[in-house]
Amino acid sequence: MPYLASHLLSQNIKMLASDWYRWYHYAPVLLETFVDTERFLGTSYRAANWIWVGRTQGRGKNDRDHQKHLPVKEVFVYPMKKEFREILNHDDRG
Q1: Distances (CA, A) of 69 to 62, 64, 75
Q2: Strand partners, 74
Q3: Can you point out the beta strands (E) in the chain?
Q4: Rounded CA separation 50/62 (Å)
Q5: Interval 33-84: pLDDT, tens
Q6: pLDDT score, position 33
Q7: Predicted confidence (pLDDT) per residue in 3-38, tens digit
Q8: Centroid of chain to Cα 57
Q9: Are the C-beta atoms of residues 77 and 50 closer than 8 Å to each other?
Q10: How far apart are CA 73 and CA 41, in angstroms?
């Protein structure tokens, strides 16, 4: 099937949005994924219009002592809403 990866990502995004709303009662506005650069190129995400925003430092989220050496990953995001920046920057604290 032509464009199989883009098609599958599209279907998964739709399912994720529906499931997320059902479970948490709000819709995601931005998706994020990490691609292990030692194993993959991120070609499918690029083809499906995900936006490359940078790469990790290879430390992991729990590395408080700057000691871990994990694979560097490419970071991609996919906006679910055009106004995602405004939504994510909204301050509910009054």
Answers
A1: 12, 12, 17
A2: 35, 55
A3: 30-36, 51-55, 73-79
A4: 26
A5: 999 989 999 999 999 999 999 998 877 767 666 666 788 899 999 999 999 9
A6: 96
A7: 899 999 999 999 999 999 999 998 899 999 999 989
A8: 17
A9: yes
A10: 10
Give yes or no for residue 85 having a pLDDT over 90: yes
31 close to 75: Cβ distance less than 8 angstroms: no
Nearest in space to 77 (alpha carbons), one of 37, 39, 42: 42
End-to-end CA gap in the chain: 51
As given in the structure block, the two tokens for residue 80 are 């679910």
Largest CA distance in the chain: 51
**Count of positions (residues) in the chain:** 94
Question: CA separation (Å) from 55 to 63, 71, 72, 75, 88?
Answer: 16, 10, 7, 5, 21
Cβ 38 vs Cβ 71: under 8 Å: yes
For residue 3 the two structure tokens come to 């464009």
What's this model's pTM, rounded to 2 decimal places? 0.83
